[in-house]
Amino acid sequence: MTTRTVDTTQELAVFLRTRRERLDPRELGLPSPRRARRTPGLRREEVAELAGISVDYVVRLEQGRGLRPSADVVEALARALRLAPAERAYLFGLTGQRPRTPRKPATSAEPTLARLVDDLSPLPAMLMNHRYDILAWNHEMTRLLLDFDTLPPSRRNSMWVCLMHPRTRELYVDRERVVREGVAHLRAAWSAHPDDPALTGLIAEFLAGDEEFARLWAERDIEVNGRGCKVLRHPEAGVLAVRFEVLTPLQDPDQRLVIFRAEDDASQAALDRLCAR
């Protein structure tokens, strides 16, 4: 028995036709036709006009002739067909293109995610955006790492805290590995969001102000690690190991939910004592 793979050319053709046929011309402000339409939705000519491309090109796409439209054409078709965000992402995936219009970076926690961070207690948890700005956190995370309320909003960034804050500079037993992984994660975020001036400015600040960051940045390591273990030398709880898991919500892919759990019984006891104070 063989498994059939997806024919993206034919899937693209069918997807474009079905999305064209579901649209109501009157809702788009198009003039009413003199004769009744024989098929539902928009005509190919109307899609071509709305997208700013030729009718022949729309015809060939819908006939599955193996065309590979550019990112600009895909974006124009997505607007013309009034695609929802998930449909737009699907269209870009079918064409093998990457969207050129960047998603607006999250600067505050989505309310349901912020509530989830609180609900995860007694597990230490926090919510970050793609540039590792800390958007929400619970009590246990403040006891384990730092009370982020004591920082100005511009400094609530996990990479800045790791590199620059005097308390956390000595927090990690294997500091070299933690910083190296953080730099590699930040480079991956930078390549995915090249038009984010706040991220670019943050990296420039680190390059100018921290020799360790500059050295590791020059190595151009790329890594996106969603789980692992960190050993902390906590000033109150002593040495403890925590395992972290990073989850990405489907509705908010630029936000990251980070959850810590004790690695062993001794670390769990230390964490319990710390959070109970």
Descriptive labels:
5-stranded antiparallel sheet; 277 residues; 12 helices; 13% strand; alpha+beta; elongated
Structure description:
- The structure is a single chain.
- The chain has 277 residues and is α+β, with helices and mostly antiparallel strands.
- The chain has 2 domains: 8-95, Orthogonal Bundle (434 Repressor (Amino-terminal Domain)), CATH 1.10.260; 111-276, Beta-Lactamase.
- It is 45% helix and 13% strand.
- The chain has helices at 8-21, 44-51, 55-62, 71-80, 85-95, 111-119, 139-144, 158-164, 175-192, 197-209, 211-218, 265-276; strands at residues 125-129, 134-137, 227-234, 238-247, 255-262.
- A 5-stranded antiparallel β-sheet has the order 2-1-5-4-3.
- The longest helix has 18 residues, at 175-192.
- The chain is elongated.
Question: TL;DR?
Answer:
The chain is of the alpha+beta class and 277 residues long. It has twelve helices and five strands. α2 (44-51) packs across α4 (71-80) and α10 packs across α11.
Provide the succession of SSEs: HHHHHHEEHHHHHEEEH
CATH-derived architecture of the largest domain: 2-Layer Sandwich
Distance between the termini: 61 Å
Q: Give the % helix.
A: 40-55%
